């Protein structure tokens, strides 16, 4: 179907009208003589291409998607960086075991690797094949756990995750292909990389592997495990900002503990999840007020991709009435509330504060020296 000339024509027509909304677009395609089934499929594809721009940029315009496949697909800058690293390490032929619509496979092929893409779901495999057309890649429809890996020197596996009742707790038992198969690739092949949910607990990281957490423009998007043959450091945080990757690496050593200071850094989710708050604190000569809380305090401000820098204006009383009075004295009307290590209900607090001023600020709810604390801050660099 994706190859058929009549589908290509219907897709061009659908892309011209998809922004009019589903009913008007379907009417326009019918009026242009496109059969209803073809029109529906073409409109779905056109809408998915629009939705995919955030992940794939301009390349989305020539790719194909399923709704689930797009949700699961890796963002292009993330897959491209991974593929480059694998190619630089010396891998030549990679098996993408559970390739989905082929976003990672595409990146591997574009980085110069030869790709064997394996996908259990036949419809998704057809879409992957369409996305890999013209590249050094072949798609096999079948079970990755029994795939023939002769001639392959690297494996990539991004297992699908079943979510029980919308829960986002990391569960190895919920993965397909299964966790044991994925981790077993570390000993089966020269190189292996696994993409996993960012909730990956540190105690599941296999000995000698590198665990990486990745965020894109502030959103924590994935964890990856690199086989010991690829591992350069125990832990890595990769923070993409405006398409540029920034790397913080280390070994999860704790940050020094000290009193709060004039500036406070709120680290990116990739840094905190990677356990690299200590490594980050070192870069700004900072301390934490509590070993279990990731706000980092420092005397000097700094522009850094790894954290937001805020200037502490005042420490406010934690009691609601007194906090409200203090915020009034600062004329605060718009307040961003962040909490780490506080049990306060942010939405209830916001409601109870009844803000009415004209200025804005950031309120950090936290703990300092084992007591609850509320720091009023202004955005720094
Ligand atoms: C998270 S998606 C992969 C997304 C892909 N990395 C991308 O960026 O487009 C996982 C895929 O694995 C497939 N899958 C699950 N179990 C499989 C198995 N045992 N063999 C082959 N494919 C499998 C699912 O159908 C799904 O398409």
| Strand line-up of the largest beta sheet | 3-2-1-4-7-9-8-10-11
Instruction: Tell me which ligands are bound.
Output: S-adenosylmethionine
| Percentage of β-strand residues | 25-35%
At CATH level 2, the architecture of the largest domain is: 3-Layer(aba) Sandwich
Looking at the structure, the CATH topology of the largest domain is Rossmann fold
Return the CATH class of the largest domain: Alpha Beta
Number of strands: 18
Oligomer: single chain
What would you note in describing this structure?
By secondary structure, the chain is α/β, with parallel strands linked by helices. Helix content is 32%, strand content 28%. It folds into three domains: 51 residues; 180 residues, Rossmann fold; 117 residues. The chain contains twelve helices and 18 strands. The strands form three sheets. A nine-stranded mixed sheet has the order 3-2-1-4-7-9-8-10-11, sandwiched between helices. Helix 6 links the parallel strand 1 and strand 2. Helix 1 crosses helix 3 and helix 5 crosses helix 6. The longest helix has 21 residues. The chain is globular and about 70 Å long. 41% of the residues are buried. The site of S-adenosylmethionine (SAM) has 22 residues, from helix 6 and strand 2.
Q: How would you briefly describe this protein structure?
A:
The chain has 381 residues and is α/β, with parallel strands linked by helices. It has helices at residues 5-17, 22-31, 36-56, 67-72, 76-88, 103-110, 122-131, 179-188, 269-273, 277-283, 320-329, 346-353, and strands spanning 93-97, 114-119, 137-141, 154-157, 160-161, 175-176, 191-196, 210-216, 219-226, 235-241, 244-250, 263-267, 287-288, 296-298, 307-316, 332-339, 359-368, 371-379. A nine-stranded mixed β-sheet has the order 3-2-1-4-7-9-8-10-11, sandwiched between helices. The chain has a seven-stranded mixed β-sheet with strand order 13-14-12-15-18-17-16. A two-stranded antiparallel ribbon has the order 5-6.
């Amino acid at each position: 179907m994706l190859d058929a000339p009549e589908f290509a024509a219907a897709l061009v027509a659908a892309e011209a009208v998809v922004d009019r909304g589903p009913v008007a677009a379907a009417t326009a395609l019918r009026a242009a003589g496109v059969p209803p089934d073809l029109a529906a499929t073409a409109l779905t594809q056109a809408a998915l291409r629009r939705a995919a721009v955030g992940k794939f940029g301009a390349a989305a315009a020539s790719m194909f998607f399923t709704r689930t496949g797009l949700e699961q697909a890796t963002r292009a800058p993330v897959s491209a960086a991974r593929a480059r690293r694998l190619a630089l390490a010396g891998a030549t032929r990679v098996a993408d075991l559970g390739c989905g619509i082929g976003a990672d496979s595409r990146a591997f092929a574009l980085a110069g690797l030869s790709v064997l893409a394996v996908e259990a779901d036949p419809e998704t495999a057809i879409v992957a094949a369409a996305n890999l057309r013209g590249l050094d890649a072949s798609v096999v429809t079948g079970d990755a756990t029994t795939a023939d890996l002769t001639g392959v020197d690297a494996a990539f596996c991004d297992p699908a995750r079943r979510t029980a009742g919308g829960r986002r707790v990391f569960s190895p038992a919920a993965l397909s292909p299964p966790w044991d198969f994925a981790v077993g690739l570390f000993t089966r092949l020269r190189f292996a990389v696994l993409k996993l949910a960012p909730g990956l607990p540190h105690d599941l990281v296999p000995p000698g592997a590198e665990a990486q957490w990745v965020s894109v423009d502030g959103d924590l998007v994935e964890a990856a495990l690199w086989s010991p043959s690829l591992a350069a450091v125990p832990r890595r945080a990769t923070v993409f900002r405006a398409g540029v990757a920034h790397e913080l690496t280390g070994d999860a050593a704790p940050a020094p503990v000290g009193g709060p200071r004039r500036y406070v850094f709120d680290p990116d989710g990739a840094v905190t999840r990677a356990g690299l708050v200590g490594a980050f604190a070192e870069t700004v000569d900072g301390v934490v007020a509590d070993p279990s809380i990731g706000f980092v305090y420092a005397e000097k401000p700094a522009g850094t991709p790894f954290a937001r820098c805020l200037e502490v204006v005042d420490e406010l009383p934690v009691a609601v009435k007194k906090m409200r009075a203090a915020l009034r004295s600062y004329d605060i009307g718009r307040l961003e509330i962040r909490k780490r290590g506080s049990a306060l209900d942010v939405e209830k607090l916001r409601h109870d504060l009844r803000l009415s001023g004209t200025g804005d600020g950031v309120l950090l709810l936290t703990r300092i020296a084992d007591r609850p604390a509320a720091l009023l801050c202004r955005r720094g660099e």
